[in-house]
Amino acid sequence: MAGHVVLFVPTAPVTHATRELVGSPDLVAHWNIPDADWPFVDTARNHLLLEASVPPGDSSTELPEILLSALIARLRPPHAEARSINPVFRLFRASVEAHYREQHDAGYYARTLGYAPRTLSRAVQQVTGRSAKAYIVDRIVLEAKRLLAHDRLTAAACANTLGFPDASNFSVFFRKATGMRPGAWQATVAVE
């Protein structure tokens, strides 16, 4: 899987609707974007990248926030989809958010939530299109990328922060998930 990561604080979007969306407990990790919307999403993302490359002082500080709001508004899932999120998935998502730094096993979440592993995996699959394990891996990778790109942590520091026994285990995990070593991935982000 390849793509761009757009990191922002929840207060960055400028419209009330987009701030509500990013702060919503109903926010899902995987949205199905209709084919007809992809040109708009790509254009908004590319414009945001272009604005991010402008030296400070050469552009309005409001433009990135406006463009981020446009991108989020274009990605917004239908209201019916947000309201119909499986309650098992809601509990799972909240538990992952609270414990992904220490717990990487889907079985842990099934046990603590009181569901059979298959029940949990079906609920996650229904909402995200991915298995419970893949959801956890995606969340850990997202945080690892944030730590590498934004906080500029080393692989060893990421390993410690994300509950891996050592940098080697973290590096193997990261490489399996992304196809790149943490340091190599971090170097590509620094170039952009």
Automatic annotation (TrEMBL):
Q: Does the keyword DNA-binding apply?
A: yes
PANTHER family annotated for this entry? Answer: ARAC-FAMILY TRANSCRIPTIONAL REGULATOR, TRANSCRIPTIONAL REGULATORY PROTEIN
Q: Which GO terms describe its molecular function?
A: DNA-binding transcription factor activity; sequence-specific DNA binding
What InterPro entries does the entry give?
Homeodomain-like_sf (IPR009057), HTH_AraC (IPR018060)
**Residue intervals of the HTH araC/xylS-type domain:** 90-188
Q: Which UniProt keywords apply?
A: DNA-binding, Transcription, Transcription regulation
Any keyword DNA-binding? yes
Q: What is this protein called?
A: Helix-turn-helix domain-containing protein
Which species does this protein come from?
A: Streptomyces sp. NBC_01401
